[in-house]
Amino acid sequence: MLVKRRNPAASGRPEGFPDPGFWQGRKVLLTGHTGFKGAWMLEWLEAMGAHVTGMSLQPEGPVSLFEGLHGTARLEGEITDIRDEAEVARRVAGIEPEIVFHLAAQSLVRRGYADPPTTYAVNIGGTLNVLKAVADVGSARAVVVTTTDKVYRNDGSGRAFVETDPLGGEDPYSRSKAICEMVVSAYHDPLEALGCRVAAARAGNVIGGGDWAADRLIPDAVRAWGRGEKLQVRRPDATRPFQHVLEPLRGYMVLAEKLCGIARCAPAYNFGPFEAGAKVRDVLDLVAGHFDGAAIAYADRIEGLHEAGTLSLDPSLAARDLGVAPVWSLEEGIAHTATWYRSFADGADPRDLCLADRMAYFAALLKAGHSRQADTPDGNAEVA
């Protein structure tokens, strides 16, 4: 039987765009909300009217995007170490969330080498604690656990990974995230029995204003150039699926909406650009073009601990099931990122900068959504 399904773009909201009506008044638990992606996501969710409670460690470093966006008072009562099973259980029981986004993690490859026990305890044990608490409380309808493009067993072929490829990893961080996904898989059936669905979200390398973490490409560049120093780059020919932070965050939210519905969802989705990954040197050359006097020294040979040379994701499944496809090109994402950092250095309010980027992204998404309607001019799609 054929039924009519209204295309959201016909009412001004393109397919693959988070529905503000869905999020209005929703009780959301967001772990890792003091981190880079978490701070951006908290801002977006609350702008749509969601009631968000965070669960994270204190922000790291002298500069924090979270504090710039939300202030320090917001931290009271929300600082939680996800390795503490009893505290996680207490917090989740007090929140009774409808939607859970689990972003909290030890996410740095080199820190994983330096401290494997903490990396495993946070990424595996912490995920187990969160999922167990969610199952015990039984209030949630959807859980999205974010992992990484590095969960795949990398054979060095350079091909784009699809969701059914074997998981693995050659460093503690990558392995910890692959095992994290096994924990997620173990909770599929128990949570579904409670009326809750869970999925993993695998995103490529994200860029965007407000990231101040160590060992991150653009933050390291901004810090070096701000001090008038030359940026030292260890692996200039490493290839990664770079994307602006707003791209995967949109995917996470749309995935949560789908999990709350009746449509089929896969157990995991890739979120990244359709194009092959970009080389580190090419990304930095683009970034440097936005900064006066930017200097870079590229290493002649690979140095340091092992990291995958090439990583690439195939996001076709997310495009098919969720209607989520990248909107900004790499050049556009870099331009917005560079503008954010330059404006921040000139004294701009990070809240204004993030809002400006969100508005620009929404405009690009609306334009892309309406252009895709060319094949369905009445705004409707026929589905079996």
TrEMBL record:
Sections of the chain in a coiled coil: none
InterPro entries noted in UniProt: CDP_4_6_deHydtase, NAD(P)-bd_dom, NAD(P)-bd_dom_sf
EC number: 4.2.1.45
Keywords assigned: Lyase
Keyword Lipid metabolism: no
Domain NAD(P)-binding: 29-253
Sample GO molecular function, one term: CDP-glucose 4,6-dehydratase activity
Record carries keyword Lyase: yes
Gene3D superfamilies: NAD(P)-binding Rossmann-like Domain (3.40.50.720), UDP-galactose 4-epimerase, domain 1 (3.90.25.10)
Protein name, as recorded: CDP-glucose 4,6-dehydratase
Species: Pseudohoeflea suaedae
